[in-house]
Structure formats: structure tokens, C-alpha cells
Specification:
- 2 copies of one chain form a homodimer.
- The first copy, chain A, is an alpha/beta fold and 387 residues long.
- In chain A, the strands form 4 sheets. A 7-stranded mixed sheet of chain A has the order 2-10-9-8-5-3-4, sandwiched between helices. In chain A, strands 11-14-13 form a 3-stranded antiparallel sheet, with helices on one face. A two-stranded parallel ribbon of chain A has the order 1-12.
- In chain A, helix 1 packs antiparallel against helix 10, helix 11 runs parallel beside helix 13 and helix 11 runs antiparallel to helix 14.
- Chains A, B: Its cofactor is pyridoxal 5'-phosphate.
- Chains A, B: One of its GO terms (molecular function) is alanine-glyoxylate transaminase activity.
- Chains A, B: Keywords: Aminotransferase, Pyridoxal phosphate, Transferase.
- Chains A, B: Belongs to the class-V pyridoxal-phosphate-dependent aminotransferase family.
Chain lengths: 387, 387
């Protein structure tokens, strides 16, 4: 008999280990199996067809006739490609920020030589559409984050885009939809968003390594090449190539096979069902947290991630650490808010019944941390939210 | 937009597909990854060591100094090997039966030329230790099933073995522990059970293809070779070979690598914790079923599988069919009781939070079937059973 690893949770080594962080997420076995096929070649006919197939599915997942470029990069790389391929260096770029990821786009624009104007709100708060539109009145490009993964806020992309467009019809709007694409309601053609950026390890439930940039038909006429910027991330060249079935650079072709398989699951239902189901799952996590005295940080919550504020006396790192002791990979907040919140997510290959299970995990976690609550309350609240 | 596959469950295509049948069960990703390593060779030093390692872990999982033989066969093949390697053809064999699997051992013994005496109880009922002991008084071998997977009954192996042994000290007792090994409390050295038979796709959470036969030190002195029976399944030769690190036949070596990894998870806690946790998970399924008007069939339930009787007007096949529509692979009853019961299990790579999720699945399933119940009752009952 071996002694138990954790006296508090002698059963914990028997737990199924879960990724419940907002990316990388759980990946379906049939998607993983795609990766390990005999090595594909991106110039072979099958590889070309797989690229075209995945690109078409990416457009379908947006529900709009946008053209997709698949980059071999993280979402950040894809965002840089979107920026340098639409916006001449020296142009005015407005960066609306209220969290870690939106701050990154401002830093990026500054480093790349854009005249960057910030519209900042404290973390956890919402961006004001009129304030953003005011700053963007004379800008070339607006950088906006839809789902802010560091705070769990879902910014009102529709209202912001409509207001900004009304004050500046020529504005190019690039939206960081890294955790909202395939997750939250997103209608860029109706809302007037020109460029959508995302990455593979979030809503599309694929391993990390691919970025996605989806261009509206109108913005494609305005794509540029910036002297001194973006050779690898020259999406103007990349879009032309990929439309013709080839990638100027060598793509992570195994990941593209996996992506195409993963997208089938998402596209098996209408987009409204997909969005509603992800909303329901995250509402269940938020309801569970609220029942435990850990409500959501943001007023308008993203369906991508539940960013929850622990009860007084507990820190985000303590909660994430206790979840890790249970075999569950969640995240604390992002610096400097590591202890303000903890973050859990059901993006990826996790369904409503997994969300219910996570409510149980939260109860066991909070009990171990000495929080007083009515046992069963979080599970009941989660299940009520799922129905 | 594609139309939803199932109008009742537009979200069902988004579900994570689960094996919730009593085998094959969910297998952990790191166990599956073992299968796909560069092809191993069973005569290479690494292959020999892996065999010895897996055999040692199988003994540890029994908590007794029994010696394990790993067969490349199903559990049925392993059982046949146990029988022909301990019992001379023509000897009297008592077969205690109360369900599909125990019936199989009687059929097998008859076919192989044993004088077979049946002690039969209707499916779902329990075997009576005194009745079995009475029949076994002049028998060579007793064939007994611990966990009857067709009815969900856990027979009282301890009481039966003690009673039979008291009346016949030389009796060889072979126990079908196919779904109890690594799942239910099992102390063969204390209880006086000579031979334990199981298979890889149950409690050990490994893909199918391997059988296990564990021999007590005492019974090893009585192993025989039966003329005309058991060349491939000659476990007398196999045990001698495997003790020396080689298998007379070619084993499914990839599965042995997988098995060794899978056993690590089970052996990470004391056996009592392992048994208690599996008991708790199955109690949660039974509690959920009971809350929905689908109580357990058997009076003394096995922790391996919840065999539940659907409410009046519903059949086992209807329930299993509706679970399949939700992407969940359960089972109806076994012929001729397909419609008497349905069967769900959390053996394998599924934890207490998965059991909670399955309670939610049952609610959605029963609602779709038009059963009236208090929404949330099954989830609440399951969670109460898990605490």
C-alpha cells in the first residue's frame, strides 16, 4: 500500500486531469489522432485540399463571407499580421484597452511605429463605445478586444464598431476575437468589423500553433505591404497565396488537419446553438462561483471564461493552486492581478456535463480551502443555469 | 447554417462522447499514447522488463502475493485457461450462476467435458452461500462470479468462498472478477479464493485484448496440463514462462505497455481508497437513477456497474438509445433482459466529477423520454452520494 499523496484528497490521484484554463483547452481524441497520421505534405494535393477545406470551415464558423488566412503562429502573431497588412506605419492607431490582452495590442502598435492613442479603462470595467468612437474619429485603424481573457469581460463589439464607424466611415476595425471566435455571438458583417483575429487553442479546440485572420471582402481591397515590417507576417501575400491553395511559407500542416476535424464538431449545429451552449456552460461556472462567494469580476461576462473573485481572505493563486492539487489546470489572474481573480473555462472539448462536474470540483476545492458554504449549492446553481 | 441533427437536443452534437458502458471503458490519454510508441519487441530486454513490471503491479492491485499471468485474450479466454490449467477433464465442477456471465462459465465447463453441476438463481438475485457450498462439497472446482455485469449484483464472494471451503478444504475456487478486480473490495488470500480472473478493459482502464489470471501460492502446486485441452491457454506453461520473463506465445506487447501505465494511476492510492472511490461513483449513479424512478435491479449492488430498471412504460433499449442520441455509449440489458434494465458505469478513466456529469446526462435523457421528475433531483442525489 502506498500512502496517499494528499491527505486531504486521498482520491485526487484518481481524478481525471482536466484543462479548465482559458486555453490551451481540451482537444477531442479524434482531433489529436489527426496529428499523428503519416506525415502530410502541404504541397501534395491532399495537403492543399485540407488547407482549402479548413479555410472554408473557418469562414462558416464566422457566418460571414470573410476570407481566412491561417498563420503558423500564436494569436499574437496573427494580430501583428493583421495590423501590418492593413495599416501603414506612421498612421494613427487607436487602442481600446481594459485588460492584459488589449494592452498588448497597444504595446505592439507602439513598437511597430504607429502613432498610438490609448483609450483605457481599469481592468474588469467595460469600454465605452462613445469614448472609443471619439478617439477613432481621425484614426486609420482601431484595435479592439472582444472577449478580454484577463478580466472575463465581453466588450460590446457591436456598439463600439457601430459608433466608431459612424464617426469615421473609412476606419479599419481589427478585432481581437481570440477567445470569442466560435464562442460568443459574433456578426462582423452586420456590425462592420473588418478583420477578425483568433488562434487555434481556444474556441476551435485545436492544439496551439495556428493563428486565424479573417478579412471582410471590402478590407481586402485595402491590404498593403509595409516597408520594413512583416515579411513572415505579410498577410497580403499570404491571403493571395492561400486563396490559390498555397502558403508562401511552410505551414504547420498537421495542425491544419486537426483543425479541420475540430471544426466539424462546431459546425454540426447552427452558430446560434453553438454560442448559446458555450454561454450556458460559462453561466454555469459563474453561477457555481457565485454560490461559493466568488462572483464574476466583470459586469458583462464573456462566455469564453469565468473570471471569478475569490471570497475575502483567499487569493486567486490559492484557488488555482488548490485546483491543481485536484488535478485540474485552471489559472490565477494575470499580473498584476494574480490574486484578484482565478480563471476557469469550458472552451474546447468539454460539454455541459463537464461544466456540471466542474461545479463539483469547485465545491471540493473551496471546502479544502476552508470556505464555509452550503454543500451542494454550487452544483445546484450550475445545473439550474444549464437547463 | 446546418440544421440541427436532433431537434430535441440541438446541443447534442457538441457533447463530449463518453463510454459509460461497463467495458470497454474510457482510457487515459497517457495510456493510449503508450500504444503508439515505436513497435516494441517482447524478447527485447525492455519488453521483458515491461512484462515483469506489469505482472508485479497486477499482484499489487490484488493486495496479495498471487502470481499473475497475462494472456493475450479476452477475459473469457483467461477464464478458460484458469479452468483447464487447474481442473482435470471429467472432474466435477460446480457453476454458481445468476446472470449472463456466470452462465457462460457453466456452458464452457460443459463444452470442455467437465461434469458440471449448476446452482442457479434468477437474474438479479443473489447466490446463497450455503446452497453453493452444499453443491461444492464433493466438487473439484467451483466457478463463481464476483460482480455479475449483466445484473449489477455483487455476490458475496467472501461468504461463498468461506462456506464452500469449510465443506471441502481441497476445493479449487476460480473467481470471475472481470469487473470487480481493481473495483470492488477483493481479498482472495483472506477469503480463500485460489484463482482470480479479469480482463484489461474493465477496472484497469486499458484497451481490450489482455486477460489476467492470478494464482495463489498454494494453487500453483496443483497446476496441470490437460490432454487435448488448452495449448494456447495452457497457463501452467505460461505461468512458468512469465515468471522467468518470457511468454511462450507472442503477447500483445503494446497493450502490456499501456497496462503498466494504467496501473500506476490505480496504485497511486491505497486499495481501500480505490475501492471506496469506485463504490462512491457507482452509488452516485444509482442514487441518480433512483431519483428518476429507475432503481438498481440487484439488492447487493456491484460498484462496477449501475444496472437500473427503467420506470414503467420505458425499456432498457429505449434508455440506452436515448443516451446514444446524446453521444453517450451505455448498454441495455443482456438477452433476454434487454428491456428489463439499462447499464451505466464509471469504471476506467472517469472520476467522481464525471459521475456527477452523468447524473445530468440521465436527467436530460429521461426528460427527452417524457419521464416526469423534479428537475435537479438526480444531480442533487448523485452529488450527495459523492460527498
Amino acid at each position: 500500500m502506498t500512502p496517499s499523496a494528499s491527505p486531504a484528497f486521498p482520491f485526487a490521484p484518481l481524478n481525471r486531469e482536466r484543462l479548465i484554463a482559458p486555453g490551451p483547452v481540451e482537444v477531442a481524441p479524434d482531433v489529436l489522432a489527426q496529428l499523428a497520421q503519416p506525415q502530410m505534405h502541404h504541397r501534395a494535393q491532399a495537403g492543399i485540399e485540407k488547407l482549402m477545406e479548413a479555410r472554408a470551415k473557418l469562414s462558416r464558423l464566422l457566418g460571414a463571407p470573410y476570407d481566412a488566412v491561417i498563420t503558423t503562429s500564436s494569436g499574437t502573431g496573427a494580430f501583428e499580421g493583421a495590423l501590418v497588412s492593413t495599416t501603414p506605419v506612421g498612421a494613427k492607431v487607436v487602442n481600446a484597452q481594459a485588460g492584459k490582452f488589449s494592452e498588448r495590442w497597444g504595446e505592439m502598435a507602439g513598437r511597430l511605429g504607429y502613432r498610438t492613442e490609448l483609450v483605457a479603462r481599469p481592468w474588469g470595467e467595460l469600454l465605452d463605445p462613445q469614448e472609443v468612437a471619439g478617439a477613432a474619429r481621425d484614426a486609420h485603424t482601431l484595435l479592439i478586444t472582444h472577449s478580454e481573457t484577463s478580466t472575463g469581460a465581453l466588450h460590446d463589439l457591436e456598439a463600439i464598431a457601430r459608433a466608431a464607424r459612424a464617426g469615421n466611415p473609412d476606419l479599419i476595425i481589427i478585432a481581437d476575437c481570440i477567445t470569442s471566435y466560435g464562442v460568443a455571438e459574433l456578426r462582423p458583417a452586420e456590425w462592420g468589423v473588418d478583420v477578425i483575429v483568433s488562434g487555434s487553442q481556444k474556441g476551435t479546440a485545436t492544439p496551439p500553433g495556428l493563428g486565424f485572420v479573417l478579412f471582410s471582402p471590402a478590407v481586402q481591397a485595402r491590404l498593403i505591404q509595409n516597408p520594413g515590417r512583416g515579411f513572415y507576417l505579410d498577410l497580403t501575400r499570404e491571403l493571395a497565396g492561400q486563396k490559390a491553395g498555397n502558403t508562401p511559407q511552410t505551414p504547420a500542416i498537421n495542425l491544419i488537419y486537426a483543425l479541420s476535424t475540430a471544426l466539424d464538431r462546431l459546425l454540426a449545429v447552427p452558430l446560434e446553438v453553438l454560442w448559446a451552449e458555450q454561454r450556458r456552460k460559462t453561466d454555469a461556472l459563474i453561477a457555481a462561483g457565485t454560490a461559493l462567494g466568488a462572483p464574476a469580476w466583470a459586469a458583462r461576462t464573456s462566455p469564453a471564461v469565468a473570471v471569478l473573485t475569490p471570497p475575502q481572505g483567499l487569493t486567486g493563486r490559492q484557488v488555482a493552486g488548490q485546483l491543481a492539487a485536484l488535478g485540474q489546470r485552471a489559472l490565477p489572474g494575470q499580473a498584476p492581478h494574480e490574486d484578484t481573480v482565478f480563471r476557469i473555462s469550458t472552451m474546447g472539448y468539454a460539454d455541459r456535463y463537464d461544466a456540471l462536474g466542474i461545479a463539483g470540483i469547485l465545491e471540493d476545492c473551496f471546502e479544502a480551502l476552508g470556505v464555509e458554504f452550503q454543500r451542494g449549492a454550487a452544483v445546484q446553481a450550475a445545473w439550474a443555469a444549464l437547463r
